[in-house]
Structures are given as structure tokens and as C-alpha cells.
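In this section we walk through a basic example: taking a raw amino acid sequence and producing a predicted 3D structure, encoded as C-alpha cells. The instruction is simple. Fold the sequence below.
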Amino acid sequence: MQCGYTPAIIRLENREEYYRMLNLSTLQDPIPLAEMIASESLITTRLAIAAAKGEALDEPEDLDKELQLLEQKMNAPKLRPMYLKGQRPW
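The resulting C-alpha cell sequence is shown next.
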């Protein structure tokens, strides 16, 4: 965020590729890692500009993420409320 730049947020779906690029990157060949970080920075900057304009920030995969979270909630074990001794639920 120095010099006013937005951070390069590596999205979760690209995390494995980022780690792979990080491991392969060398001082002699930093280009693949630099290109990936530049790409992620561009996406982050576009989102920041859209947010500043008050535009919707939905991404196409957001619906998939929401459906996955809903499925997890539906499949989670149900918890029953606990009552202190002598209390009644009504």
C-alpha cells in the first residue's frame, strides 16, 4: 500500500498457483511470479475502483460460494438449546 497502490490480494482459488510460482521464482527468472502478482493486483484495483463508484462487487463465482456455504449449514449437526436446571423452554 506504499505509494498509494492497492494490495495484491491473492484469491483463494489462485492460492495453490501462487505458492507454486513462489517456489519456482528465482532472481534470474522472477517473471512468472511477477506476472501473477500483477494480474491479481489488477483485479484488486478494478474491485477497489468499482467499490469507490458504488458499483456492485459481485463476482460470477460468488453464487457458487454462497450455495456451498448454504449446503454446509444444511448438513451441519443440529444443536439443541440447553436449559439450566429448573428452567423451562416456555
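Looking at the output, two observations stand out. The helical segments are 15-24, 31-52, 62-75. The chain has one domain: 2-75. In the next section we compare this with other chains.
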